[in-house]
Amino acid sequence: MSTPTINPAMQAALNQMQDLAGQAAGAVPRAGGQNLDTTVGSGGFSEALQSSLERINQMQTDAGDKAKAFQAGEPGVSLHDTMITSQKASIAFEMGVQMRNRLVSAYKDVMNMQV
């Protein structure tokens, strides 16, 4: 029984698919046949998202603490600093809400794709 041969066009397509699979996995083939690691940092998207949410939460907490300190009349806490901290926390929160909205929209788009 003879082994079926793969025509050159199919072999080229198969090689291209394997290269793309390697790129998706984070390894990009180089000219010498070696792989180049393209991952950025040790964390992934979920860790970056988690740290962003923690920073937003910390900014909200700091703004609340500074507002309470100003209301209590603690020395060294000015209205100017209190308002700036509050606005920074508000903008960070709005950014988080917009990020969530875009992630939900992207998720819905992916789920509605025809396969």
Describe this structure in words.
- Belongs to the FliE family.
- It holds the Pfam family FliE.
- The chain has 115 residues and is mainly α.
- The chain folds into two domains: 8-37; 45-111.
- It is 69% helix and 5% strand.
- The chain has three helices and two strands; from the N terminus they run αββαα.
- The chain has helices at 8-25, 45-72, 79-111, and strands at 27-29, 35-37.
- A two-stranded antiparallel ribbon has the order 1-2.
- The longest helix has 33 residues, at 79-111.
- The protein is elongated and about 85 Å long.
- The two termini are 37 Å apart.
Q: What is the topological layout?
A:
Blueprint: H1 8-25, E1 27-29, E2 35-37, H2 45-72, H3 79-111
Antiparallel strand pairs: 1-2
Helix pairs in contact: 2-3
Q: Measured on Cα atoms, how large is the radius of gyration?
A: 26 Å
Number of strands: 2
Strand content is 5-15%
Number of domains: 2
Report the average pLDDT across residues.
80
The largest sheet has its strands arranged as 1-2
Our measurement of the CA-to-CA distance between the termini, rounded to an integer number of angstroms, reads: 37 Å
The helix tally amounts to 3
SSE run: HEEHH
Tell me roughly what share of residues is in helical segments: 55-70%
Largest sheet: 2 strands, antiparallel
Structural class designation: mainly alpha
Overall shape: it is: elongated
Uncertain segments = none
InterPro entries: FliE
Family: Belongs to the FliE family.
Subcellular location: Bacterial flagellum basal body
Keywords: Bacterial flagellum, Cell projection, Cilium, Flagellum
